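Form 12-C: Joint structure prediction
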Amino acid sequence: TAGQVINCKAAVAWSAKSPLSIETIQVAPPRAHEVRVKILYTAVCHTDAYTLDGHDPEGLFPVVLGHEGSGVVESVRERVTGFSVGDHVVPLYVPQCKECDYCLNPKTNLCQKIRVTQGNGYLPDGTSRFTCNGKQLFHFMGCSTFSEYTVVADISLCKVNPTAPLEKVSLLGCGISTGYGAVLNTCKVEQGSTVAVWGLGAVGLAVIMGAKAAGAKRIIGIDLIESKFSSAKFFGATECINPKSIQLAEGKSFQAWLVDNFDGGFDYTFECIGNVHTMRQALEAAHKGWGVSCIIGVAGAGQEISTRPFQLVTGRTWKGTAFGGWKSVDSVPKLVEDYLNKKLLIDEFITHRYHIDEINTAFDVLHKGESLRSVLAF
Ligand code: NAD
Ligand code: AHE
Ligand code: ZN
Ligand code: ZN
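Section 2 - Result
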């Protein structure tokens, strides 16, 4: 099929706030510096739901969503370096071109080589490889893993150890790498630190896994759904709190209660929800003088964070992370090795497995808070 259009199955988002529709789409061959990938597994991340629900200012429809997947190279165009048919690969929504100012700067992983076209739902040449019933479909985050076949830029793909199970490796395409990297790269959490995490979904649990690996001495998990607490403890939380169960004195905020009850606040806090109010809680629960708060959650169009400047003047730092700060092409293969060497966990994040035809159920259980990660097979 190299060089030819492939007809295959995909879950198409025809419009915002509508269920995905299983369709036969046409996937055109890869052009120069592109790779066509056969997706074997894809997980559903909250960010997919964020865009599907119409909260994403860059959201474009109709689109093939999905950005946490794995598969094998089906075909490449000549002049693509580094990939051969059959390679086990993970698509990367944060690419790594190794030439742009961002790739050359050790302070960031945010390669900007193709960010404009990616944000416009296209491959780097400004066009799409997807059609359905004669209609063009947009790409998503440069990945579009909700399709049996996808086409990605060669800088948005990495080769991984073929002995690693692709079903598990798909989770390193987003959630686990992000939470784990937020701790190790973005915040560089030191041994003996105290950490608090808002949101005990896959991302928040990966933060907890990272905090344990960094040697944190106290890790507090915070969520409204108490059934999340057992998995938080499995990954290393020393305590879990449901804010709704705390009796607050008149006029006392939850974060002020945390400051009063946890030695003045935490060395590091992480927001893994995407809610500007919990982002404020996390910032103001960071310790005076040195506390760092890291935003991982994605807040919708128009949402803004707020706090008194005094919070920063008195020594707190507010920062954020994209894909856990990992320079993606260099790092994801190493994270796969860490998994193979049992340095990091993946299996325990997979709570549901579905066939792609049941993808809307995967979104339902995510919204209900019943799942961590659902992995879909084609
Ligand atoms: P998820 O839906 O599985 O988890 C969110 C958790 O937050 C749930 O357990 C929910 O019960 C809890 N929650 C909701 N409101 C709360 C509140 N007011 N107080 C306490 N807990 C609350 O989502 P996920 O897949 O783990 O993703 C988490 C967030 O991270 C999302 O916003 C997603 O878009 C974002 N994300 C960002 C990056 C990045 O690179 N920055 C990467 C992956 C995901
Ligand atoms: N289009 C969205 C972007 C939201 C966002 O912050 N995305 C994260 C990844 S979330 C993965 O689950 C990110 O990496 N952003 C870096 C970038 O360049 O977008 C919006 O809200 O505008
Ligand atoms: Zn994601
Ligand atoms: Zn770059």
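Section 3 - Comments
The pocket of zinc ion (ligand 3) is lined by residues 45, 47, 67-68, 174-175 (CB under 6 Å). The mean pLDDT is 97.
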